[in-house]
Every structure is written in C-alpha cells, then in structure tokens.
Amino acid sequence: MRIENKIPHIPVLLNETINLFKGNLQDNGYFIDCTLGFGGHSEAILESFSNIKLIGIDQDKDAIEFAKKRLSKYANRVEFINKRASFALKELNGFNISGILADIGVSSYQLDNRERGFTFDSDCLDMRMNKDQSFSAKDVVNFYDKASLERIFKNYAEERRYKKIADFIIKNRPINSNKELSEVLLKAGIKNKKDLAPIFQAIRIEVNNELDELESILNGVELVAQNETVLGIITFHSLEDRIVKNKFKEWAKRCICPPLVLRCECGNNNQKGIILTKKPITASKDEIKLNPRSRSAKLRGFKFKG
C-alpha cells in the first residue's frame, strides 16, 4: 500500500523537542532520528540546524517511503536505514554524533489505518510495526496460554481484571479481527473505548517487543554517544518513561559502588553526563486540544560528556 503525499501524522512535543536541542546541540556532525516515522521531527531538526547531517531510522517501509519524499529538499544531508533502531545503532559506532532522538510511539497513520490492525474496529488482528515480521497480534490472542495473557494485561495494561480478560479471550477463540476482540473484551466487562485502549496497547507492546527494544536503543545510544552528544526520548507509556528515567539516573551517577559499601571505591568519577530535564516535559493544553494523542507524551533529555 502506498501513502498519499498529505502528512498522516502530527509529531508530538515538536517545539519542546527543538528547544531541548537548540539549547544544547552542536550544529555539526550527525543527528540520529531512531524512530523517523513520517519525518516531522527530522524536518524540524534539519531546518533548525543548517550544518547537521541526519540519519533517519525506521522499521516501517511505509514511513521510510513517505519521509524520503518529505525530506527530499535535504537529500544531500539525509541517509535512511530501514531497520529496528537497536540494530541500526550498532552500525553507527565511530560516527560524529551530535544528537539522538527516539519517539517511542506508534504513528497516527499506523493507528488509524484499519489495514494495519491497530484500530478497535479493524477487520484484521495484526498490530505489527514492521510488516515483514511474521509474529502478530493474532498469534498472541489465539495461541498464548492463560499465564502469558495475564502477564501482558497485568504488566503492560496495568489492568486489575487481567485474569478475567485472559479467561474470556481463551474461551472465545479463535478470534480473527480486532472487531471480534473488542466484542470479547466488552463481554469481559470492558465498558468503553477508553478502557479498551490499554488492552490493545498491551498486545501491541508484546507483538513489537517494545520495552526490550527501548532498553536496546538506550544501550545502543550509550555505545555511539560521544562528548556533548544530546539525547531526547519521547515516551507514551508509564513503563517506558520509567525505563528512560532510571537509565538517565544510572548514567548520571558519579559513584557506582554497591549500596552496602561504606566508602566509595570506584573513584566517584563514573558520571556519563547530565540530565537535562529534572521532570519530563509534557504537552501544552493547546497541543492536547489540537492532538489528543499528545496528552500522554513525556520528553526527557540527557547530555553525554567525554
């Protein structure tokens, strides 16, 4: 399926993201957009920093196709990589990296496109960000055992009725579409779309291995980051934000001795950089009104030192 030229996704926290980098980013070297999407953040970075070269990474071929068109006027300053960011970052060690951005969310195009199987009323059961991946939501819903379903609904959806929901799904198998899944969830006591969303999100996280991918991206960032490299991470889920928050705290520690050690033995000079955002930056009321999906977005920033 080809994407029309109209912009199918509004980048969240765009001004806030650019301001984070404007105050800290050196206008040279490479900027890595780990989750290129439809190029909204990348376009703003290229406009704001005239000497930056950008590497756009995305596992979704549709997104790459659209971003190439959108960023065509910057063709001499942009390279594209069609892979998971965790894999692509391993290939970029040794590059002069000025900045890195990762927007850990699903694009509006993916969410709204019924053929991609993310919407509640979709005729398929899919939720893959990478269409070349074989494992899909159909496998989770129809073949996971009760304990595995309970795990994802309890941990990822933070749903108190996780046992009942898992039980209803198993009793109503096979389930062949999101529409059918929604009907089953309504029978299990989920009353409205607002309550359906965390359940669908939990399945999506499992299908795309999103939390492990975030951990791998952070590990990859640590590998390629150099002195003065600025990192921005946008998350949409409390578990994602917690992972980023804890990693930033770990990187900012001067002492890495075990807690029970009475006197520092590590040299007290292990700090990898500084946290740029004491609290996560969130969307303004105006942005939430324009784009309701921005209400759960959180931006955190970190600057590495040599």
Level of helix content?
A: 40-55%
Give the C-alpha Rg.
20 Å
Q: Which of globular, elongated, flat, extended, rod-shaped describes the shape? A: globular
Q: What is the tally of helical segments?
A: 13
Global mean pLDDT:
92
* Distance between the first and last residues' Cα: 45 Å
Beta-strand segment tally? 8
| N-to-C order of helices and strands | HEHEHEHEHHHHHHHEHEEHE
Strand content: 5-15%
Helix/strand-derived class? alpha/beta
How does this model look, in words?
The protein is an alpha/beta fold. It is 41% helix and 13% strand. The protein has 13 helices and 8 strands. Strands 1, 2, 3, 4, 5, 6, 7 and 8 form an 8-stranded mixed sheet that branches. It is globular and about 55 Å long. The model has no long low-confidence stretch (mean pLDDT 92).
